Amino acid sequence: MPSTTGGTRGSVIETSGLTKRYGKHLAVDGLDLSVPGGSVFGFLGPNGSGKTTTIRMLMGLIEPTSGRAKVLGRPMPFETRRVLPHVGALIEGPALYGFLSGRDNLLRYDSADPTADPRTRGARADAALDRVGLTAAAGKKAKAYSLGMKQRLGLAAALLQPRELLVLDEPTNGLDPQGMREIRSLVRELASDGTTVFLSSHLLDEIEQVCTHAAVMAQGRLITQGPVAELAAGARGRLSVTTPDTGDAARVLKELGVADLVVTEDRVTGEPPGTDLADVNAALVEAGVRVRGFGVERASLEDAFVALTGEGFDVAG
Amino acid sequence: MSRAEVTAGADGTDGADGTSPATTHATTAHATTAHAAKAHATTPHAAKAHATTAHADRAHPTEPRPVRLAWTLGLFRSELSLTFRRWRTLALLAVLAAVPVLVGIAVKIETSDGGSVGGGGPDGGGGPAFIAQVTNNGLFLVFTALAATLPFFLPMAIGVVAGDAIAGEASAGTLRYLLVAPAGRTRLLLAKYAAALTFCLVATLVVAASALAVGALLFPLGEVTTISGTRISFSDGLLRALLIALVVAASLIGVSALGLFVSTMTSSGIAAMATTVGLLITVQIVDQIPQLHAIHPYLFSHYWLSFADLMRDPVYWDDLVKNLGLQALYAGVFGSAAWARFGAKDIAS
Predict the structure, then answer these.
(1) Into how many domains does chain A fold?
(2) What residues of chain A lie within 8 A of the CB of B172, using their CB?
(3) Cys-Cys crosslink for A50: which of A101, A161, A203, A220, Cβ 3.0 to 4.6 Å?
(4) Could you say which of A59, A73, A195 has the minimum Cβ distance to residue B180?
(5) Which of A243, A286, A120, A62 is nearest to B74 (CA)?
(6) Does A55 touch chain B (CB under 8 A)?
(7) How far is B330 from chain A (nearest CA, A)?
(8) Which of A84, A85, A108 sits opposite B78 (nearest CB)?
(9) What range does the domain containing A293 cover?
(10) Does the ipTM exceed 0.90?
(11) A18: CATH
């Protein structure tokens, strides 16, 4: 959504100093988040890093200890009634009435929205079921659904109305690779319609594949946020030389000023030097190093994350 | 949070206050979209248009969709159908319907040799009120069945339904989706309470209807002798039976409110149901301990059996009014407590 109002006003989600404390434990610590309209925003962090708590605060389910949150330009949780009809959400997995059919589950959730027209309820439920590919299973009791089908039905509930914002908390959890691909393509499709998608995940490649923007959380704090391309660029790629003469290669590279050298079986990697890489290659050949492969590996978001946190992408303790 | 919600809910239609960033966005599109919304509501193709033209709606980001009273009642209807589609609810109603059948058959068997119920004492001896008159008039089975189920079966059934109301949704995780729909906490609570009260009425009427059917099958029907000894016509008696059923249903208002309050305190449906039924038993026991007579008038079950006074001629209203007043008090106190608790609760399930 091009921001006609300019600047940060184009933000669909905006928080400042958002904090949630449980006893002594800070689940979310002074979060300043800004989600631009029209983006597919990846909300990244290990399990237990405060993603879901943040989402619950944004959706008015839990009250922040301090700080403010605005969704669609309105303060939450004070304006839930005006904001939430425009927001579709999948929070911590689907929750369904097992004794109702998939379609009846959607009708139930739709009737909870006081702005939803009961005359179009059935048609909207059918359209949502069709969109997630559940039409054939619409009449089946939800307790007979597989985890993947439940996830889809949860998504269908988020798509009962045209939404400005979709908040999807770990939408591919429990899905097989095929299901994950389908959800990703659905997310892309929705985003191309102009819906802002706020997607939380602990899977880096998922964020990298579908998101235009990302924020990284760790232990309740926001570590960084911005366009995915910029975040990945923040971590520089690594020079990689594949060679049987790793010892000589390492010596030559060190002389040329390549730092942080890592030598594996048949590969030497390091931070690329400031000089022209063609000269580096020439120097290696001159020194009699037999080079099989030479190049700079593009930095991934994972590299960026490791660079930012100095740690692996594991579950927070 | 509940406070804010109430004020926000009061004016669902105003959207262009121009103070928030998103509304400035919305105001530009307002004129055209108001038009579109109107067309939406009147054309028969509304459903299709709504579901497929996501683009058209995006032109006005937070244009508030109107909230209509009839639409907002949709949650109550949904709540009702949910309650009565649960296997558990139907089982409870089946048990309640079986009570008059058992009582009727027992009375029929015991009196088949021409004797009277309970060994022939002047008041029919033990057993629930009115049981001695059942053999003379099947209509009395209605009163007997209500007197037999009111102390425990009925309130227990209500305790299960009301106790599970919020806690059950919380433990299933469906509560968070209802709230982000957004159902509105006050609105959801009201819908839940209304559904619980409807269940009270239905449960009572099931007992009464079952008793009437069994009574008509096994015993003669005819003129009714009131407690005061006067005789009223059968149709008059039927009317009193209906009135008694309504009073019995109203006697359950307090338990419903209590159950709903307990339901907002926990995220476990089973715990809420057990607590409510436990409280019910405790109150009944306390009501039986003479040393605690000072608090008896404040126990929700204390005036329950006053419904029998409707069978006096003229009707003795004092205890009936006290009962209804007490139920209203419980509804007020525990209803407010449930609202305060639920409105400020962090939903973390």
Answers:
(1) 2
(2) 95-97
(3) A220
(4) A59
(5) A120
(6) no
(7) 27
(8) A108
(9) 236-298
(10) no
(11) 3.40.50.300
